[in-house]
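Exercise: predict the fold of this chain.
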Amino acid sequence: MWSAFAAVAVVAVVFVVGPFTFLPSLVGGLVAQNIQSDLGLAKTPDVELRNDEAPLEMLLGEFTGGEISIRDAEFGGVRTDSVDVELDPFDVSMRESIRNRALEGDELRGDLRIEISGGEVARLADSRAAVPVSGVDLSGEEMVVETSVALLGATVPVSVRGGIGFEGEEISFLPGSIAVAGTDLPEAATVDILEELEVSFPLEGLPSGTEIQDAGVEDGAVVLTGRVEGLSGGG
Protein backbone atom coordinates (compact mmCIF):
# COMPACT_ATOMS: atom_id res chain seq x y z
CA MET A 1 0.00 0.00 0.00
CA TRP A 2 2.80 2.37 0.97
CA SER A 3 4.65 1.59 -2.26
CA ALA A 4 1.55 2.46 -4.26
CA PHE A 5 1.17 5.70 -2.32
CA ALA A 6 4.82 6.53 -2.92
CA ALA A 7 4.42 5.89 -6.63
CA VAL A 8 1.43 8.20 -6.80
CA ALA A 9 3.38 10.85 -4.88
CA VAL A 10 6.30 10.60 -7.29
CA VAL A 11 3.99 10.98 -10.28
CA ALA A 12 2.37 14.01 -8.67
CA VAL A 13 5.74 15.63 -8.01
CA VAL A 14 6.84 15.01 -11.59
CA PHE A 15 3.56 16.43 -12.86
CA VAL A 16 3.97 19.62 -10.82
CA VAL A 17 7.74 20.11 -11.00
CA GLY A 18 8.21 18.93 -14.59
CA PRO A 19 6.68 21.96 -16.34
CA PHE A 20 8.26 24.27 -13.75
CA THR A 21 11.77 23.10 -14.69
CA PHE A 22 11.24 22.21 -18.34
CA LEU A 23 9.37 25.19 -19.76
CA PRO A 24 11.63 28.02 -18.50
CA SER A 25 14.66 25.97 -19.51
CA LEU A 26 13.19 25.50 -22.98
CA VAL A 27 12.61 29.26 -23.38
CA GLY A 28 16.15 29.92 -22.17
CA GLY A 29 17.43 27.47 -24.76
CA LEU A 30 15.56 29.30 -27.51
CA VAL A 31 17.09 32.61 -26.40
CA ALA A 32 20.58 31.09 -26.35
CA GLN A 33 20.29 29.53 -29.81
CA ASN A 34 18.93 32.69 -31.38
CA ILE A 35 21.61 34.91 -29.85
CA GLN A 36 24.31 32.50 -30.99
CA SER A 37 22.93 32.66 -34.52
CA ASP A 38 22.47 36.45 -34.54
CA LEU A 39 26.01 37.16 -33.29
CA GLY A 40 27.75 34.32 -35.13
CA LEU A 41 29.16 32.87 -31.90
CA ALA A 42 31.23 29.69 -31.86
CA LYS A 43 29.77 28.70 -28.48
CA THR A 44 26.18 28.74 -27.27
CA PRO A 45 25.64 31.35 -24.53
CA ASP A 46 24.49 30.32 -21.07
CA VAL A 47 21.01 31.65 -20.35
CA GLU A 48 19.25 31.50 -17.01
CA LEU A 49 15.78 32.98 -16.63
CA ARG A 50 14.04 33.58 -13.31
CA ASN A 51 11.09 35.03 -11.46
CA ASP A 52 12.30 35.96 -7.99
CA GLU A 53 8.89 37.16 -6.80
CA ALA A 54 6.61 34.33 -7.96
CA PRO A 55 8.55 31.39 -9.49
CA LEU A 56 5.39 29.57 -10.61
CA GLU A 57 4.48 32.52 -12.85
CA MET A 58 7.37 31.51 -15.12
CA LEU A 59 4.99 28.85 -16.38
CA LEU A 60 2.83 31.74 -17.62
CA GLY A 61 5.82 33.38 -19.30
CA GLU A 62 6.37 36.08 -16.69
CA PHE A 63 10.03 36.65 -15.78
CA THR A 64 11.52 39.22 -13.40
CA GLY A 65 14.90 38.90 -15.10
CA GLY A 66 17.71 36.56 -15.96
CA GLU A 67 21.30 36.36 -17.10
CA ILE A 68 22.92 35.86 -20.50
CA SER A 69 26.59 34.86 -20.31
CA ILE A 70 28.83 34.73 -23.38
CA ARG A 71 32.34 33.36 -22.83
CA ASP A 72 35.49 33.59 -24.98
CA ALA A 73 33.84 35.38 -27.90
CA GLU A 74 35.56 37.59 -30.48
CA PHE A 75 34.12 40.91 -31.63
CA GLY A 76 35.89 42.81 -34.40
CA GLY A 77 39.17 41.05 -33.66
CA VAL A 78 38.94 41.71 -29.91
CA ARG A 79 38.83 38.55 -27.79
CA THR A 80 36.58 39.03 -24.78
CA ASP A 81 36.72 36.96 -21.62
CA SER A 82 33.05 37.51 -20.90
CA VAL A 83 29.99 39.39 -22.07
CA ASP A 84 27.19 39.35 -19.50
CA VAL A 85 23.70 40.82 -19.70
CA GLU A 86 21.53 41.17 -16.58
CA LEU A 87 18.03 41.16 -18.03
CA ASP A 88 15.17 43.47 -17.11
CA PRO A 89 11.71 41.97 -16.42
CA PHE A 90 9.95 40.65 -19.53
CA ASP A 91 7.00 38.51 -20.58
CA VAL A 92 6.77 35.88 -23.29
CA SER A 93 4.00 33.79 -24.78
CA MET A 94 4.97 30.30 -23.68
CA ARG A 95 2.55 28.58 -26.05
CA GLU A 96 3.63 30.55 -29.13
CA SER A 97 7.32 30.32 -28.26
CA ILE A 98 7.17 26.54 -27.90
CA ARG A 99 5.02 26.15 -31.01
CA ASN A 100 7.24 28.34 -33.21
CA ARG A 101 10.56 27.36 -31.61
CA ALA A 102 11.33 31.07 -31.25
CA LEU A 103 10.87 33.64 -28.52
CA GLU A 104 7.52 35.38 -28.87
CA GLY A 105 7.02 38.30 -26.53
CA ASP A 106 8.81 41.33 -25.15
CA GLU A 107 12.20 42.35 -26.50
CA LEU A 108 15.06 41.58 -24.15
CA ARG A 109 17.05 44.40 -22.60
CA GLY A 110 19.31 44.88 -19.62
CA ASP A 111 22.62 45.94 -18.12
CA LEU A 112 25.76 44.94 -20.02
CA ARG A 113 29.24 44.10 -18.72
CA ILE A 114 32.21 43.15 -20.92
CA GLU A 115 35.60 41.98 -19.64
CA ILE A 116 38.81 41.86 -21.70
CA SER A 117 41.91 40.26 -20.18
CA GLY A 118 45.21 42.02 -19.65
CA GLY A 119 46.88 39.59 -22.04
CA GLU A 120 44.48 40.48 -24.83
CA VAL A 121 44.91 44.19 -24.16
CA ALA A 122 48.70 43.73 -24.37
CA ARG A 123 48.35 41.91 -27.69
CA LEU A 124 46.14 44.64 -29.11
CA ALA A 125 48.36 47.47 -27.85
CA ASP A 126 51.47 45.85 -29.34
CA SER A 127 49.73 45.40 -32.70
CA ARG A 128 48.56 49.04 -32.89
CA ALA A 129 51.22 51.15 -31.16
CA ALA A 130 53.88 53.00 -33.15
CA VAL A 131 56.50 52.03 -30.54
CA PRO A 132 57.36 48.54 -29.23
CA VAL A 133 55.25 47.32 -26.32
CA SER A 134 56.99 44.89 -23.97
CA GLY A 135 54.14 44.51 -21.52
CA VAL A 136 50.87 45.85 -20.12
CA ASP A 137 49.83 45.98 -16.48
CA LEU A 138 46.24 46.59 -15.42
CA SER A 139 46.14 47.49 -11.76
CA GLY A 140 44.10 49.81 -9.63
CA GLU A 141 42.18 52.02 -12.03
CA GLU A 142 44.88 52.59 -14.63
CA MET A 143 46.71 50.90 -17.46
CA VAL A 144 50.52 50.88 -17.52
CA VAL A 145 52.27 50.18 -20.81
CA GLU A 146 55.93 49.13 -20.76
CA THR A 147 57.93 50.41 -23.74
CA SER A 148 61.33 52.01 -24.41
CA VAL A 149 62.76 55.29 -25.69
CA ALA A 150 66.11 56.46 -27.01
CA LEU A 151 67.67 58.69 -24.38
CA LEU A 152 71.25 60.04 -24.49
CA GLY A 153 72.23 57.51 -27.09
CA ALA A 154 70.82 54.52 -25.21
CA THR A 155 67.53 52.60 -25.22
CA VAL A 156 65.84 53.14 -21.89
CA PRO A 157 62.80 51.18 -20.65
CA VAL A 158 59.95 53.40 -19.54
CA SER A 159 56.45 53.03 -18.11
CA VAL A 160 53.54 54.92 -19.62
CA ARG A 161 50.54 55.39 -17.35
CA GLY A 162 47.07 56.20 -18.57
CA GLY A 163 43.42 55.31 -18.64
CA ILE A 164 40.89 53.51 -20.83
CA GLY A 165 38.17 55.21 -22.84
CA PHE A 166 35.42 54.17 -25.24
CA GLU A 167 34.12 56.36 -28.04
CA GLY A 168 32.68 55.67 -31.47
CA GLU A 169 32.73 51.88 -30.98
CA GLU A 170 36.47 51.95 -30.22
CA ILE A 171 38.40 51.13 -27.05
CA SER A 172 41.25 53.59 -26.53
CA PHE A 173 44.33 53.78 -24.35
CA LEU A 174 44.67 57.35 -23.10
CA PRO A 175 48.31 57.86 -22.05
CA GLY A 176 48.93 60.46 -19.39
CA SER A 177 52.51 60.36 -18.17
CA ILE A 178 55.86 58.64 -18.67
CA ALA A 179 58.14 57.52 -15.87
CA VAL A 180 61.73 56.25 -15.91
CA ALA A 181 62.66 54.32 -12.77
CA GLY A 182 59.57 55.71 -11.08
CA THR A 183 60.34 59.35 -11.94
CA ASP A 184 58.01 61.25 -14.25
CA LEU A 185 59.67 62.84 -17.28
CA PRO A 186 58.96 66.49 -18.19
CA GLU A 187 55.91 66.90 -20.44
CA ALA A 188 57.96 68.51 -23.23
CA ALA A 189 60.13 65.40 -23.47
CA THR A 190 57.23 62.98 -23.75
CA VAL A 191 54.81 64.51 -26.26
CA ASP A 192 55.92 62.40 -29.24
CA ILE A 193 55.88 59.11 -27.30
CA LEU A 194 52.47 59.80 -25.82
CA GLU A 195 51.06 60.45 -29.28
CA GLU A 196 52.55 57.18 -30.56
CA LEU A 197 50.84 55.29 -27.75
CA GLU A 198 47.37 56.76 -28.30
CA VAL A 199 46.16 53.44 -29.66
CA SER A 200 42.57 52.35 -30.22
CA PHE A 201 40.86 49.25 -31.52
CA PRO A 202 37.26 48.72 -32.64
CA LEU A 203 34.83 46.48 -30.76
CA GLU A 204 32.43 45.50 -33.53
CA GLY A 205 29.64 42.98 -33.81
CA LEU A 206 28.08 43.50 -30.37
CA PRO A 207 24.31 42.96 -30.03
CA SER A 208 22.25 45.60 -31.77
CA GLY A 209 21.08 48.33 -29.43
CA THR A 210 24.29 48.21 -27.38
CA GLU A 211 25.43 51.42 -25.70
CA ILE A 212 28.73 51.46 -23.80
CA GLN A 213 28.44 54.00 -20.99
CA ASP A 214 31.69 53.52 -19.08
CA ALA A 215 35.15 52.01 -19.56
CA GLY A 216 37.85 51.36 -17.02
CA VAL A 217 40.23 48.93 -15.35
CA GLU A 218 39.03 46.49 -12.71
CA ASP A 219 40.61 43.37 -11.22
CA GLY A 220 43.32 43.11 -13.88
CA ALA A 221 40.96 43.47 -16.84
CA VAL A 222 39.47 46.17 -19.03
CA VAL A 223 35.79 46.43 -18.12
CA LEU A 224 33.11 48.05 -20.27
CA THR A 225 29.62 48.61 -18.89
CA GLY A 226 26.42 49.86 -20.47
CA ARG A 227 23.02 48.82 -21.73
CA VAL A 228 21.49 46.60 -24.37
CA GLU A 229 18.09 47.73 -25.64
CA GLY A 230 16.00 45.46 -27.82
CA LEU A 231 18.31 42.44 -27.73
CA SER A 232 17.21 39.95 -30.36
CA GLY A 233 16.27 36.78 -28.57
CA GLY A 234 13.66 35.76 -31.09
CA GLY A 235 13.88 34.07 -34.41
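Check your answer against the key: The first helix runs from residue 2 to 39.
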